[in-house]
Amino acid sequence: MPTSTSRRGLLFGAAAVSTGALLTACTSNEPKETGNDQADVPVADDKPGKKVTIGFAGPQADHGWLNAINVNARERAKKYKDVTLEITEGSNDTAAQIGQIDTLINKKVDVLVILPADGKAMTQAGLKAMRAGIPVVNLDRIFASPQAYRCWIGGDNYGMGLNAGHYIGEKLKDKKNAKVIELAGLDNLELTKQRTEGFDAALKNYPNIKKVARQAADFTVESGQAKMSQLLQAQKSFDALWNHDDDQGVGALRAIKQAGRDDFLMVGGAGALSAFQEIKAGKGVLQATVLYPPTMAASAIDLARALGQGKGVSGMAEFEIPSSLTLYSAVVTKDNVDEYMPTGFK
Fold first, then answer.
1. Looking at the structure, do residues 180 and 86 belong to the same domain, yes or no?
2. What is the domain-level CATH number for residue 161?
3. Beta strand 286-291 with 331-333: parallel, antiparallel or unpaired?
4. Which sequence ranges form a coiled-coil region, renumbered to this chain (predicted)?
């Protein structure tokens, strides 16, 4: 997931359910019309165009969100008769993934979509592909050099924290001396720091609220349960919890139920199906989750296809696709959960 430099990009005000659809509707194989009558007409992108082979080097599916990335890429490619997807096994080992990318380069794919195991460490792989004349769509974890990719698309970690903080802030704005706690992800990751920074920035708008505890987990069910148990033992009374990740949130909810606690509200992160179902049921502490949409992989396939076919994005004046797309971290609650349910990952 990206470093803070990713936030320089275009902010898309589209949530997970609409991001891919927007790109699908926005690219076109049809000749551009120059007359004013055609200027504002959206063009569907379901007609076959130039055949494009897309190489996809994704992550090892050892986490619900990472598995959803691979699934979204595969399913999106199937929708296009003019796209052939060359997909690697997926690896969290930098050396192994570099080898996989070398194989895709040697196969002379038209475009590469890469979610690197480590963006900084794999920058040379992106540079190698670009120098070989293969445009790269850098997915989420950003390369250290903009020369290593043609387009970056990913989530907004700072925005996740910001929106989670504002949601909790609005819920507690009338409560005196409100207390919140935070169950973070891996603290050695830049994305975790960004999520906390966004959360803290939002809470500054609510002087009645104080963050009284923060505990880092490992983005796993087991760590979520263990760390949440520790927080519950240390904090006998608080009003809200923000959990960075819905996978570890499964464990956190187990700990909460085992402790018999229901005296606070909980906000999750990412957009797992289990979180959506819990929110819809409305019987527990989980009231909302803030998206980090894995549909970005589907949109990356859309962008790669557009690059391979030399297309731009309709609705924008430019002839080329943007160099950067930052997805919006929508807040999913009981009021809108049905809309997002199809995008939930397992």
1. no
2. 3.40.50.2300
3. antiparallel
4. none
Q: What is the pLDDT of residues 176-186, one digit of tens each?
A: 999 999 999 99
Say what the pTM is. Answer: 0.84
Q: Are residues 173 and 260 in the same domain?
A: yes
- Count of domains in the chain? 2
For the chain, residues with pLDDT lower than 70 are 1-46, 314
One domain, residues 165 and 274: yes
Q: Which domain holds residue 181?
A: 157-291
How far apart CA 292 and CA 310 sit, in angstroms, is: 29
CB 73 within 8 Å of CB 112: no
CA distances from 145 to 130, 150, 155, 321 (A): 12, 11, 18, 19
Output the CA–CA distances (angstroms, integers) from residue 75 to 35, 69, 72, 299, 301, in the order listed: 36, 10, 5, 11, 10
Residue 46 is predicted with a pLDDT of: 60
Per DSSP, helices labelled H in 282-331 are 296-308
DSSP helix/strand/coil, 118: coil
